[in-house]
Amino acid sequence: AAMVKETIRVYARVKPLGRRQQAGGGGSGAGLDVEEEPLSSLEITVPRDLADGFVNNKREIYKFKFQKIFDQEAKQDVVFDSIAKPVAECVLAGYNGTVFAYGQTGSGKTFTITGGAERYSDRGIIPRTLSYIFDQLQKDSSKVYTTHVSYLEIYNECGYDLLDPRHEASRLEDLPKVTIMEDSDQNIHLKNLSLQQATNEEEALNLLFLGDTNRMIAETPMNQASSRSHCIFTIHISSKEPGSATIRRSKLHLVDLAGSERVAKTGVGGHLLTEAKYINLSLHYLEQVIIALAEKNRSHIPYRNSMMTSVLRDSLGGNCMTTMIATLALDKRNIDESISTCRFAQRVALIKNEAILNEEIDPRLMIVQLKKEIQDLKDELELLTGKQRTSELSQEELLQLNDLIETFLKDNDPDSTLDVGADMRKIKYCFVHMKQLMNHPTTSDKKLLSQDIPEEYTNKEAGEEELEKLKELLQQRDNEINILVNMLKKEKKKAQDALFQLNATSAGSAVLERSLSINLEDRQSPLSCFSLKEAKDFSSSVHRLPFLFRQTGGKMSLGCQEAFEVFQQDHADSITIEDNKRLLKQRFAEVKCLGEKLNEVRSKINHLKGEITQRHIQRAALAVSNPSEELNMMDPVEEKLRMQIEEEKKSYKTMFSRFKGLKVEIEHLQLLMEKVKMKMQKDFEVWWSEEAKNLQ
Q: Which end of the chain is less crowded, N or C, counting CB atoms within 10 A of the terminal residue's CB?
């Protein structure tokens, strides 16, 4: 198998400064000196007032080399083209690949790997890689491809499957626990991690969205997932050429590591401290593995110390093409963290990987080939014996054999033989038939009947059991209904009391009443922000009750709804939602318009084809009535019609590809909206529970 040896490629990406820092709150502490030699180098200058805080205060300029450095202005597509595309190309060719992002919390890891939720152009490496891979697979018709994805989250040394099909997780602990198994060949297998098939980009993006949503829901306000856990999104591709028994299997890990900052900075107590310890431990083990790999004569590499390093074992110093992106926030507060990220990156750059083409023989395809060989041998046998052989004996032959056996058994002559010729199939059949006759000399009808009885009897029992179950279920439903009715009564009473109190209050009451009635009228369209007709079919595929409903048995109280509407209007993301809604409306209009145009062009082409057929008929009739030479010549009219068809086809093609592009963008926008809505519901939930606490 072909092998590619190369060191891990390391890139850096500098995060744009926040608005506060640009306004001069401390200024940028880093001189960005980028020299474009074969490698780019990054120079970090530490301001004097910070230098004395370091153990080593002699050095104030640090220099680090990277494959390429992306500055604040770098766009997502450029980052994808440089970093992930070459790896994706290798994966399509049958090699394993890994892209991982490393850096402190808030330095832009998740933005780089997954993308931002604001704009379509903010898509990160994962969605772009999916688009690219499915695009390439469609173009290549020489092989048959199958694609699966998995999404693993590692938090406090436990793995969780983010693509659990039952996805009703409100806490991380509800998701299936993933464990590591090692086989005799020291290969790592992840038990309980589901592999979901994705036949096209849309399915893959929906799975990615499901995973991201599960990840977001599992966050507690204390645990902002992206900073506290590692996430590994893996694309598994297998391919084979038709008729060949060789399969290529490759996988591409896209990894968003936890924040690399040191504990002191997080300044947190209790629960968070163990968590920070764990996260830092797993990054510490990652660092140990990398140091061990960089040393020339180390035989033992401590992969087994953490789940993270076990899963990424191949990616680090193994059979894989690996690329790392170090994300840096270069404002004053974070200089020390940035320097430690760069140091880590320099160590990673020393590691050599050996990627091997992953090919294997598929047993099922071998079976197909062997079957063909058997058929060839049968044909050969037929040639030699002059008789055709099928694998089954014909009905006629079987009856003939039965007669032969019967006469043979009845014949009392000790010298009588049963002669069926040199045909193994017939000989086998005779033996089987004799065996049956020996075991069941006569099969009486009575015996058969007696076997049937118990089955009916058991059916009756099963029926009674079923009835009991249904009764229980009915009782359960009755209880549920009673509970709900009581809840409704309470709600009604609350509302009446509230109105009564309002009427009792003096001067302000009229105003309040008016505002209340306005709000009640508004409530004809509850959660208006969440109705997106066009996204109907989509949202049903990722169906979740908002968090609050889940806790209160699927009811959101009036007060709570009211608060939610107000909260939603003031929420920062409501602008994003409105923008996206407008954009979606626009896109839907465009798609609709394009669809109509496509239909027009289609009918136009059909009409032109009809005209050509007419023309053929006319000319054929003409040829019969006066046969002459010129009818064999080209028909200019037909030629013109064909040209027109070609033109129409061209415009159809361009419109269709635009149509497909728009569809992908619409799907993405819908995912973004869902995401922002999720976030808003989540923020509201946190706010609401805090308000409730304050009231108590």
A: C
